[in-house]
Amino acid sequence: MSDFETIARPYSKALFEMALESKSLQAWSDSLTAAAAIADDEAMQAMFELSSMLPSEHVELLLSVYAGIDGVQKANAELKNFFSLLAENGRLTALPAIALGYEMLKQEADGKVDVQVTSAQKLTKEQKDEIAKSMEKKLGKEVNISSEVDATLIAGAIIRAGDLVIDGSVLARLDKLSTALNK
What we know:
Blueprint: H1 5-21, H2 25-39, H3 42-48, H4 55-67, H5 77-88, H6 95-109, E1 112-119, H7 125-139, E2 142-149, E3 157-161, E4 164-167, H8 170-181
Parallel strand pairs: 1-2
Antiparallel strand pairs: 1-3, 3-4
Helix pairs in contact: 1-2, 1-6, 2-6, 4-5
């Protein structure tokens, strides 16, 4: 999905600004989450890549699946136009990245941020709490911590919060040392 981050950013930002202006942040969030789940499906991605289908047919396919999802509002004209714009530009496969970018902007506006911690060993609850407390102080926002283990880091952790990356892993320190020695 990182390949789509650059493509997704202007779409996410434009949608967020439109939703903020129309006071429909949650409705757009729900719609984008549903559309992203559809577009993330391998079979759907294959359909989007068929050159024998017109962009309008891609939109009809997406809307027909979208209409079958319980709990989301009916696709309005703005959502249909958005899907059409993406289809015309061959960007329907970027929907998951667009939805992710939109959610990050929404959380930022709500004063919240997701923090991903990748550590060499499983974090204890106390360690997660300490990282959350430190990141809340640093970012001035409510923090939601998620963590994963990557033993290749040797020791330490990498903390990601949006565009902010703090790499405190031993692997990164060894890479820096190796680079310095090879100069």
